[in-house]
Known about the structure:
Blueprint: H1 12-45, E1 56-58, H2 59-66, H3 71-79, E2 81-84, H4 91-97, E3 106-109, H5 114-139, H6 145-151, H7 164-170, H8 173-186, H9 192-209, H10 214-268, H11 271-276, H12 279-304, H13 306-321, H14 326-370, H15 372-377, H16 381-433, H17 439-480, E4 503-510, E5 520-527, E6 532-537, H18 543-548, E7 558-563, E8 566-567, H19 573-578, E9 580-583, E10 592-593, H20 594-598, H21 607-616, H22 620-625, E11 633-634, H23 643-656, E12 661-665, H24 673-686, E13 691-695, H25 699-702, E14 707-712, E15 715-720, H26 722-728, H27 730-739, H28 742-745
Parallel strand pairs: 6-13, 6-14, 9-12, 12-13
Antiparallel strand pairs: 1-3, 2-3, 4-5, 4-7, 7-8, 10-11, 14-15
Helix pairs in contact: 1-10, 1-13, 1-17, 5-9, 10-12, 12-14, 12-17, 13-17, 14-16, 14-17, 16-17, 21-23, 26-27
Amino acid sequence: MMRLAKYLKPFLPLLLLSVVLLFGQAMADLALPDYMSNIVNKGIQQGGVTSAVPDAIRQSEMDRLSLFLSAENKAQVLAAYTLVDESSPDYDKYVKQYPALAEAPIYVLSAAGKDQIAALNPVMGKALLAVATIEQVMADPSKGAALGQMAGMDLTKLPPGTDLFDMLAKSPEAQKGALLASIDERFAGMGDSLIVQSAAGAVKAEYVALGMDTDKLQTDYVLRTGLLMLALSLASAACAVAVGYLSARTAAGVARNLRKLVFRKVESFASAEFDKFSTASLITRTTNDIVQIQMVVIMLVRIVFYAPILGVGGVIRALSKDTSMWWIIAAAVAVLIGLVATAFSLALPRFRIIQTLIDRLNLVTRENLSGMMVIRAFNRQDAELSRFDKVNKDVTGTMLFVNRLMVVMMPAMMMIMNVMTLAIIWVGAHQVADLNMQVGDMMAFMQYAVQIVFAFLMLSIMFIIVPRASVSASRVADVLETEPSIKDPQNPKQFVSPFTGTVEFRNVSFRYPGAEEDVLHDISFSAQPGQTTALIGTTGSGKSTLVNLIPRFYDVTGGAVILDGVDVREVTQHDLRAKIGLVPQKSSLFSGTIESTLRYADENASEETLKAAADTAQATEFITAKEEGMASEIAQGGSNVSGGQKQRLAIARALVKRAPIYIFDDSFSNLDFTTDAALRRALKRYTSSATVMIVTQRIATIMNAEQIIVLDAGQIVGKGTHPELMETCETYRSIALSQLSKEELA
């Protein structure tokens, strides 16, 4: 995948925006368990009381609290409150909020910040719990054994109606100090949140005494927190939708660019590169492989960026709730990583095999579709079905293995998650029972643990998907990183003007890439403008290879091909091929109309040029016979026209170019002799000033050529006109006599 990372550069702004949105989504998702914990702890268990620092407190109750505060803490608490009585300017406002103010003065909390409240929470919480404990002892002296023991008194034998607060107020300072120390020791094991939770009952009782509506207090808190959770959920959903859109746009853009780059690269390939990559493989790489990359880019944006944020954030928040259960999460993650590593090691080799098998499947399918007539002619349908079925079963079997692996992994991962949840409930329940943890915090810890494991679960899915995409990415990168064997020169020359079209082969030798021997040996001849140079020879003698060196489909391995005194390797491929009108051995027509087929050589060609080319190629007769004439449709590959019509359209297409050099590579093989003769006569007039090179097996086609080159085993064995070669070249004479009688050859 890293080999294609540079192609993501145009989409960096979208990726950065996606990361920002994913961060926002993760923060919203991570905040939800915390608010759920608050609803349980503060909304339900504490009745909506969020702090051990009451908003208001009766003066009498404050006096009792002062008994359990050090001088420093007492000053700190009183500094945070304002005493309100009948003479206070805000009396009318506060008496509505706190009806008990009508009977006695109260203390109202001033505008205190979060830090001040946090500092006062343990101080007032312990004092409130101490006051509540004393009030219980006064109601039932038998409950005062522990407190009395800590205070150095036997409180169980107090007479009924004894005011312990009055006794404590009058007790010596040493006894008060011992009591404060015992209270601090008693609550030392409790965290601030547990102290607040324990003191919430006392705060709520004080609110009742003040005449406040505590039910509304609880309802308002739950509703307020619930609405905030709803807003966070909507924000998370909005971020997820936005990221989905951006990731899809990014992935589609990357796939579009890769397809374009691969196609452009393939267009620059020489024949040597096509020998390296099969057509079926290039089709698979341009379609299936890039689809795999597109899918993984979407997953990378939506998961790979999101999962680490969720996982790290979950760890931080979970440990903020409780640090004693970290080992549960660590064990679950370790088992999950081991499971993913095993699956990864098993899946990666199969993914490499799958892409190769898909290449093979495409190849078999393509061969069957293109050779259907041959298959039917030889009654090989069953054999081809068996061949296709074997490849299809190979693909299916490999994919089934990978899918079974994924099917096993998902339940295994869910089991790990469920076992982890049970362990958290088991350990957390004991923590709650020992007053070391709140119920809401345990529930939040469980949710964070699930989010952490879910983050690893998402990453594990990526570890299953990425291997196949990485194989596809490597295959696409192989194409993009392949340097064409035929390149334009750094400082190209220009053809001289006017360009005459003289073609010269100067001591040319050629060897196919990877071959051990040359297929052409020391070829030297020249083709002049206004003349026809024909190439003839036995099958495999190198005729087509020779003419393919002119437009640089291959480069010579020895010698040089010269056009108008310039080596073809010293000019750009575009300039070179602009001078050549080529009709290849296999006529290839693209889908469209007859007119678009002819205009393929020159989009701006006039109607007169199109008509002249069609007339010369002897194509006008069958074109006008069609109902729509030039507007008639040509199917893909020219499948709706005959072989002869296809060849004539290919010849007409080349003639539209009006090039100074024409190469006809066995382009008359599907024409009858009458059409062949008429075409040659018309071609002579049309190309009177051009250099014409004809590769053919027909002696009749080239008998009137100004120059005939006879090839045998890659060497020139004869050169001259027809009468000269009949006298001097045995190879030419044997070919001629095998086709025509002596009278016809005379």
